[in-house]
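Amino Acid Chain and Its Fold in Token Form
===========================================
Scope: a single protein chain, as residues and as a discrete description of its fold.
Amino acid sequence: labelled as such and written in the usual single-letter residue code.
Position: the record begins directly beneath this header, with no further notes in between.
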Amino acid sequence: MRIIRGKYGRRRFDPPKNITARPTTDFARENIFNVIENLEDIEGKQVCDLFSGTGAIAFEFLSRGASEVTAVEMAPVQASFIKSVKEKLGDEHLRLIKGDVFKFIAGSRMGYDIVFADPPYDHPRFEEVPALILGSALVKPGTLVIIEHSGTRDFSQLPGFFQRREYGSVNFSMFRVGSAPEDNEEDAAAADADARQSE
């Protein structure tokens, strides 16, 4: 696992061989963070990373200046790896929740600035995840929500959807709930501008 940019940029950590997570590719992660940074100033933001896996997304947010990142991961191997990387970095701004994401979503009372979710593509409740997040207390007015998914899924009819990005086989749907429609149009325009710069 490689942290791409920021204060921990280029740091590498080797996940255990028995890890079952499907990490977001470096290519997709670099591109989606370019989009996120075009939409949000990550510095000082509170972030929630659901189905955190290796923690690559969580650590990327930390590296780029997020004030606190909550990583939620149930699998013992993945959670232990996240904890070990946190200890190696000595960064106390990561909060690891070892538990069920669905229970966390239902029980959380805290709103975040950015919520990122990368459920296993074959999870039997995958289709429920975006709507559950968007309807939860995790999301406050203006929260940026990013869902990673395969190309076979379409969440464009959900509230606040403004952009879908595709990097190889990896897709991201982005939402911002509680803002005016014109704000979502501005988000889409900003993301499109980023796409043109990346070409």
In short: Strands lie at 46-50, 68-72, 94-97, 112-117, 139-149, 161-167, 170-176. Residues 99 and 134 are 20 Å apart (CA to CA). The first strand starts at residue 46 and ends at 50.
